[in-house]
Description:
The complex is a heterodimer. By secondary structure, chain A is mainly β.
Amino acid sequence: NxxxxxxxxxxxxxxxxxxxxxxxxxxxxxxxxxxxQDPGMGLxxxxxxxxxxxxxxxxxxxGYNVSRLNKREFSLRLxxxxxxxxxxxxxxxxQGSYEQYFGPGTRLTVT
Amino acid sequence: xxxxxxxxxxxxxxGAIVQINCTYQTSGFxxxxxYQQHDGGAPTFLSYxxxxxxxxxxxxxxxxxxxxxxxxxxxxxxxxxxxxxxxCAPRSEDKIIFGxxxxxxxxx
Lengths: 111, 108
């Protein structure tokens, strides 16, 4: 079992470029999440998906879109990257009532 | 709306006990989780309280008072490897938000 995997691990973008962050899980999670983490800000919820076919906005959804492609995969898209989106992005899955399993993170820099 | 408060930093001595408090305000509250994160790593699950009272998992315990919208994480017999950031995370149905985290410094 790979758990929760994220690709890429590192990425540098120029302002205005687009990219998709990939997340996949093999733990049969119903719910999946995208968070961003900035120094001193903790983790902030961008979007989440309670089940296949549903997505909901979190605390900071502006500038992002998501796709729950199937039960395993939940992608995060930046259509036009901005320097303010420089951050570490974590994907997480949840099967039971509480425990989330996190991927290793994607470190994104927008110049 | 939602709000979450926990201390930004706590310092304790190796072998001692430390308590990290968390107050929250969230609609449709289900329960409160705690996570640990070492520098450069991903958060890992520590404990969960769905009901009032104390949950114990080894050296770590967590407490919840739903009526006070308050919880805490208790770490006993502190070890240097416990130096990390700790996050409380209230759950509202499927939505889970995190606090800004408490940085725990441990002195030898």
